[in-house]
UniProtKB/TrEMBL annotation:
The lineage of its organism: Bacteria, Bacillati, Actinomycetota, Actinomycetes, Kitasatosporales. It comes from the Bacteria. It holds the Pfam family adh_short_C2. Gene3D superfamilies: NAD(P)-binding Rossmann-like Domain. Keywords: Oxidoreductase. One of its GO terms (molecular function) is oxidoreductase activity. PROSITE patterns: ADH_SHORT. It comes from Streptomyces rhizosphaericus. InterPro entries: NAD(P)-bd_dom_sf, Sc_DH/Rdtase_CS, SDR_fam. This is SDR family oxidoreductase.
Amino acid sequence: MELSFKNKVVVVTGAAGGFGSATARTFADAGAHVVVSDIDTAGAERVAAGLPSAIAITTDVTDPDAVRSLVDAAESAFGGIDVMVNNAGVPHRKCDLIDLDVEAVDWQLAVNVRSVFLGCKYAVPALRRRGGGVIINVASIAAKRPRPGLTVYNATKGAVITLTRGLAGEVAPNVRVNAVNPVVAETGFVRSLTGSDVLPDDLRRDWVSGIPMARTASPQDVANSIFYLASDQAGFLTGVCLDVDGGRSIQ
C-alpha cells in the first residue's frame, strides 16, 4: 500500500537530527512540502536542501514567539499545515536524580515538555484552518519502561504521553493527536547521554539485551511509524502512543 502526502504540508521540529531528518525525508519522498525546523540553522538548511520542496526555519522550540513564527512561516510558504511533528527533545547525562542540577531539570522540562505544548498550541488553530490534520509527538519507551539514571528524562516523556492522550480528546474529530515511543537509537541522543558520539559497547550490550529484536532503533524505524500515524490509513487512530521499541515494552 503506497501512502501519499502529495501537496500536504508537514512541519518537523528537531529536523536536523536523526529522527527528525529521517522523518522529513520520508514525508518529502511521499510528495509533501516540508518545513525543516531546528535550532541548528546549518543543519536545518542542509536537510532542506536535499528535499524537493522544503524550507528551513531556525526555531528555539522553548520560545513561544519562535514557535508561533514557525507556524506562520509554514502557512506563508505553503498555504497551511496538515501535519505537525513535535520531535525536538534532549536527554540529560546519565546520572542519579540527586546529582542532577536544577538548571538541567529546567532545561529538560523546557525542551521535552514545554516545546510539545507550544507546538500543539500553535499548530491546532492552523490545522483547523485547513479543515483538520494530525499532530505526532515523539515521546519515548522510557516513559513506560524507565531506566535508572534517566529519571527526569523518563518523566518528561511520560508527560508527553499524557499530553498526547488528553489533547486527542479535546480536538477530535477534526484533528488527530498521536505519539511514538522509540527505544534507544544511536543518534545525537547518545552524545547528550554519554558525552560520546558512539554508544559504548558495554552499554549497547546491556540495553540491547532487553530488546527482543536484538538491536537499537534506527531513525527510519521511527520515521516510518510517524509517517503511518499521520496517514489517512490511520484515520481512526487518535490518542495512540505507539511503542517503536523492538519489543522492549513486553519484556
